[in-house]
Amino acid sequence: MKDSVFTDNDYALAYPPGIEHHFWTQTRVNIAVDLIRGYALQKRKILEIGCGKGIMVRELRLRGLDCLGADLANVTAPDDISSFVFLNQDACQLDQGFRDSVDVILLLDVIEHIEFVQPFLERIQNAFTNVKWFIVMVPARKEFWSNYDTHFGHFRRYDLEMMRALASTMNYQLLLNRYFFHALYLAAFIHLRLSGKREVRGFAPRGFARPFHRFLASVFYLESLLMPASAPGSSIVALFKKG
Question: Which pTM does this prediction carry?
Answer without folding.
Answer: 0.93
